[in-house]
Design goal:
Blueprint (H helix, E strand, L loop, with lengths): L7 H18 L3 E6 L2 H4 L1 H16 L3 E6 L2 H10 L6 E2 L2 E2 L3 H25 L4 E5 L6 E5 L8 E6 L2 H8 L3 E5 L1 E3 L5 E3 L2 H11 L4 E6 L17 E3 H9 L7 H13 L4 E6 L5 H7 L6 E4 L2
Parallel strand pairs: 1-2, 1-11, 2-8, 5-8, 11-13, 12-14
Antiparallel strand pairs: 3-4, 6-7, 9-10, 13-14
Helix pairs in contact: 3-5, 4-5, 7-9
Length: 288
């Protein structure tokens, strides 16, 4: 956002312009769903962690919810196991569930925690199983151990926030019998943001936001209400893989989140652009 060609005066001006937004978000909860290309590209990953560390330093209570699909696929490939999907959801037998748990709650989660700590941000990694944060049941028998969320026990996240940590949450849940489940990251983020009455939920994706023409980024819809989003879905403007993402946005709003942003995580420092500048980024979904 600031490069070496800027004078000190210009840098000071940028910081001054950010002041109203810093006032608005300091002490507030912002949930970030992290995935897509921003999670694969190492340079983008560094920039996302820098954004979160800066927000933490100015007093924003960030909760980072992450997936890790490509890393899961990579380990499955090494183990000679072919990924299967039904309607965009991973078919998860017991062996695949073990892999999901190892990758998400282990490698990916702890890598992100370490990166945040290196940027000067206090972070703590937990999974949906810790403190039974994400309680669930089987979503669909044909999908195996894919979970449908039945309850969020949010106390562990609140405890971490109150102690000054940034919670980093992997989306693995469990049921009352102790079985573990793979949980859709967008859905988990929506439920967690709702349980926290978050000021904002940011959904990082690989597209600019909601587009009237999916092949033309200039048709970006800057803001949409929940009723308008439902109408756009009926009209077929919201289609394909964007449908479940928008449904998660609506779910979050209905559960008490002030507003949700769908934005392009491939844009450097897009989180700071969205929260701390007039420009913003992506599409804002509001209750209307």
């Amino acid at each position: 956002m600031i490069d070496n060609h800027f004078s000190n005066m210009e840098r000071a001006e940028v910081l001054t312009q950010a002041l109203p937004y810093i006032r608005r978000y300091t002490g507030k909860v912002v949930v970030i769903k992290y995935g897509g290309n921003a999670m694969i590209n190492e340079q983008l990953k560094e920039q996302v962690m820098e954004d979160i560390a800066l927000l933490w330093l100015i007093g924003v209570k960030v909760v980072l919810v992450h997936g890790g699909g490509p890393e899961i696929n990579e380990l499955m490939d090494k183990l000679g196991k072919k990924p299967e999907f039904v309607n965009g959801l991973r078919v998860t037998d017991k062996e695949t569930m073990d892999i999901v748990q190892m990758v998400l709650a282990g490698k990916v989660n702890k890598t992100l925690v370490n990166l945040l700590e290196m940027k000067g941000c206090k972070a703590m990694g937990i999974s949906g199983m810790d403190g039974r944060l994400i309680e669930c049941k089987i979503k669909d028998e044909q999908l195996g151990y894919v979970g449908k969320i039945t309850k969020i026990h949010i106390d562990p996240v609140i405890d971490l926030l109150e102690k000054g940590y940034t919670p980093v949450i992997s989306t693995v849940g469990c049921d009352k019998a102790g079985n573990t489940y793979n949980i859709n990251g967008d859905t988990a983020a929506a439920y967690i943001a709702g349980a926290l009455n978050a000021e904002r939920l940011i959904m990082m994706t690989d597209i600019a936001g909601l587009l009237r023409d999916k092949d033309d980024s200039s048709t970006l819809i800057a803001e949409v209400t929940v009723p308008e989003a439902k109408e756009l879905q009926k009209e077929g403007i919201i289609s394909g893989g964007m449908i479940p993402k928008v449904e998660c946005c609506i779910e979050a709003i209905e559960k008490g989140v002030k507003n949700v942003i769908i934005m392009d995580g491939r844009v450097p420092h897009s989180i700071l652009m969205e929260l701390l500048t007039d420009e913003g980024a992506g599409t804002m979904v509001t209750g209307g």
